[in-house]
Amino acid sequence: MVSFGTRPEAIKMIPVYQELKKYPELFEVTLVVTGQHREMLDQVLSLYDIYPDFDIMSLNQSLTDITNVLELKYNELFEQERPDLVLVHGDTTTALVAAFEAFYHKIKVGHVEAGLRTYDRYNPFPEEINRQLIGRFASLHFAPTLKAKENLIKENVQGKIWVTGNTAIDTLFLNLNKEYSDSLLESIDADKMIILTTHRRENLGKAMEQIFLAIEELSREWPEYSIIYPVHMNPKIRQMAHKFLENISNVHLIDPLDVIGFHHYLKKAKIILTDSGGIQEEAPSLGKPVLVLRETTERPEGVTVGTLKLVGTNRTTIVNEVNKLLTDDSYYQTFVTAKNPYGDGSASKQIVSALKGIYYKEY
Ligand code: UD1
Ligand code: UDP
């Protein structure tokens, strides 16, 4: 059973699901989609003709709301289906609840994107503790990098660990080979686009206010640049974004893009500002500088190779960092030449090949 419920999980788990489906003689595969997200998840699912199994999202949902409702849903599901293995992804509430309910039912858990750590319990919140806990429940750990594997070894997790790369790269490469265009993308000159995304719970409030003030200042300093901000569907974020950034001619507040579109926007961007996890993995493959709007990251590999820079959420720091990239080309180039540390686009194949090895020794 492959299970997920949010946009980023869908983007990174659908390639695993599709790869498993190639072997009907080996695996009976079911997909369970919780609908922790609605619009943003459906945007991804509709590209693949997949529909959510549960419709659990409520507006301004709390972590407790999601956890409570999912516990009962997974309990019922596991009682009925009793899969041999549940594959969960990363660190969302959906993944945590699926993993612990599977454990209660003594069903084996496989963790895709295992071993990412900041070791800072409130950054990102609640994801850091979610993924540490999932690491305890899981017995198959698919780590994207060697560093992630080392974290798991240090923690003495039980079971087996593989280093596979990140499935985000599988999807990215597939999407960049697809045709995409829209009028906004076409209207912006190459090299004159800055992309912003921000949605982390720990950035809601003061930190996000600082980010938006920095964007407003940059839009005045750099009128020839278009700042594209696909605004997360979280109503709290949408309200703030419109309050601070509406009616600025070179700031485009747009709805979330479907993932094929977003990957093409990334490819054309000059700089990316983000607190997202997945975008930190995708941008290094494209050689794009990413200013990470967070105090810590569980993706230190991108910082080490030089594509990512942690800048936090202070307005002045953000403005200065963007100015430096836009005025000092040799500095900018140090980000561009960096290598992608998150795999070659074969992570899903490697995960499925590991599963073949476990369940069918001859593979
Ligand atoms: C969750 C994940 C986080 C991931 C993020 C991706 C957890 C603990 N966190 O964040 O790791 O980075 O998703 O976006 O699971 N909403 C809509 N429409 C949508 C999606 C969300 O209205 O399509 C609203 C929800 O009602 C909710 C808010 O946005 O009020 C936040 O959604 P939620 O799933 O609670 O997201 P996060 O916990 O912030
Ligand atoms: N993404 C997308 N449309 C957008 C913005 C982002 O499809 O408008 C993709 C992005 O390419 C990445 C994923 O969404 O694969 C990241 O999701 P998000 O930032 O919501 O969550 P996180 O990765 O932080 O958990």
Q: What does this 3D model show about the protein?
A:
With 363 residues, the protein is of the alpha/beta class. The protein folds into two domains: 2-165 and 346-359, Rossmann fold, CATH 3.40.50; 182-337, Glycogen Phosphorylase B (Rossmann fold, 3-Layer(aba) Sandwich). Helix content is 48%, strand content 13%. It contains 16 helices and twelve strands. Strands 9-8-7-10-11-12 form a six-stranded parallel sheet, sandwiched between helices. Helix 1 links the parallel strand 1 and strand 2. Helix 4 packs parallel to helix 5. The longest helix has 19 residues, at 63-81. It starts with a strand and ends with a helix. It binds uridine-diphosphate-N-acetylglucosamine (UD1) and uridine-5'-diphosphate. Uridine-diphosphate-N-acetylglucosamine binds next to helix 1 and helix 2.
